[in-house]
């Protein structure tokens, strides 16, 4: 369950959002039926790699250090949630309980070389093993781009 800390209604707040832009964890989409109307099995693989959890933890520590700088002293009265006194293990648990996606899921039909045994589409965005069928969206990315996926998706759309 995702837990989000929010300021009380009517109050003023400053916040920081942390994003692991280049996750190591990988998920999968598996077709479990020959019926095209059946839902696939989705495994986001979210935070399976300790590298992703470590990255999130260190980012939280950096944000806490930033907000403890003298510049903020007159603006920050108290944190909404006390993360400063948590151990690394407790921060990791906090990350696992509160992290969520940024709703920019990609890579479920990754592009690869025509002769590669992995990947779903070739560099021309044609589905391997199919005739005259293209996939032209963010699902063809092999890795997460270091930024918003929209610009890269536009590039794929222009190419297709």
TrEMBL record:
Any Pfam family: GMC_oxred_C
Database matches in InterPro entries: FAD/NAD-bd_sf (IPR036188), GMC_OxRdtase (IPR012132), GMC_OxRtase_C (IPR007867)
Domain Glucose-methanol-choline oxidoreductase C-terminal: 23-157
Highest taxon above the source species: Eukaryota
An example Gene Ontology molecular-function term: oxidoreductase activity, acting on CH-OH group of donors
Cofactor: FAD
Transmembrane segments: none
Xref: SUPFAM superfamilies: FAD-linked reductases, C-terminal domain, FAD/NAD(P)-binding domain
Family classification: Belongs to the GMC oxidoreductase family.
Protein name: Glucose-methanol-choline oxidoreductase
Species the sequence originates in: Mycena albidolilacea
Lineage start: Eukaryota, Fungi, Dikarya, Basidiomycota, Agaricomycotina
